[in-house]
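REQUEST ID: PR-0412
SUBMITTED BY: lab tech R.K.
PRIORITY: routine
TASK: structure prediction, single protein chain
INPUT:
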Amino acid sequence: MIYARHLYEEYDHDRKAVAKTIGGDPFSWAGFKAIGNDKTVDDMLAILTPGKLEKYIKEYEF
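STATUS: complete
OUTPUT:
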């Protein structure tokens, strides 16, 4: 989340540039959630319940 916010500022608020940089990361959804809001990372993680996170987790073969 912090990394995405730094990129967002570095790329002059260009969401597409941030997406190209972090898009392949499995946790990119967290970065996108952090862009454009003023909540702390701790506050954001506190409201992300397992049910809300399930849609972001890809299924992997074991």
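NOTES: The two ends are 28 Å apart (CA to CA).
REVIEWED BY: pending
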